[in-house]
Design a protein that fits this description.
This protein is mainly α and 227 residues long. It is built from eight helices and no strands. It has one domain. 83% of the residues lie in helices and 0% in strands. The radius of gyration is 19 Å and the shape is globular.
């Protein structure tokens, strides 16, 4: 592949990463501008803790991503569907365990930064709930990116950034750091819903935990749908 082709193929991945980082940092900037430096400072531990909630998804994704390309190349679509749903169940379970543990320890984790930071335990809870929802939707972004639909993943990231910023501008003036957490959670939910819809359209099956449960229920009822 020529350098120009490599650059063209990598551009959407770069865009996804950039917009993801911008979405997080945008909340800090909006907080500083609309609620003051104190609220922006109180929000920083949440920003630092949030990525820990994604450890399971990131770890599994390192093995899952190359398998997507391999199975698509071999035409093993049924196998891809099976392992995708297995990934969804695994990462959702891990996300629930990690997020629940963080929330149980939240008063001490945030308190380590100072007593004033414990006021944002509830805000951390919104982020945790959104990350569990993220895991429950399945590895939708990875599935799109590794199957040649990077532009759809990038589009979803751009829309989610717009939603996050809009919610932040609306909520932050009255709710401060709590409003910023709600805005981030809203962006995460919107992004996953858009990616889930795209996967259903492009790959023809539902990789989410909800899809797995519906399929399992259908099987027990006598049906067996690929979707």
């Amino acid at each position: 592949m020529a350098p120009r082709d490599w650059g063209r193929a990598a551009a959407p991945f770069l865009g996804i990463t950039v917009f993801g980082v911008v979405g997080t940092e945008a909340m800090t900037l909006i907080l500083g501008g609309m609620a003051g430096p104190v609220e922006a400072g109180l929000f920083q531990p949440i920003v630092r803790i949030a990525p820990v909630m994604l450890i399971g998804l990131d770890a599994v994704g390192m093995r899952y991503s190359p398998r997507v390309s391999e199975l698509l190349e071999l035409g093993e679509i049924k196998h891809l569907v099976r392992i995708t749903r297995l990934v969804t169940m695994t990462t959702t379970f891990v996300a629930i365990v990690i997020c629940s543990s963080i929330l149980l320890l939240a008063p001490w984790l945030l308190g380590a930064f100072g007593k004033a930071f414990t006021a944002n335990v509830a805000a951390l809870g919104w982020i945790a709930a959104a990350q569990v929802f993220n895991a429950a939707c399945g590895p939708v972004a990875m599935l799109l990116a590794m199957s040649g639909h990077q532009s759809r993943a990038l589009f979803g990231q751009v829309v989610a950034l717009g939603v996050t910023v809009a919610l932040g501008v609306w909520l932050i003036p009255q709710d401060g750091a709590h409003g910023a957490a709600l805005a981030m959670a809203g962006g995460i939910v919107v992004w996953n819903l858009l990616m889930l819809l795209s996967v259903r359209q492009q790959r023809g099956f539902d990789p989410s935990l909800f899809g797995v449960l519906i399929r399992y229920t259908g099987r027990r009822g006598g049906g067996d749908s690929q979707r």
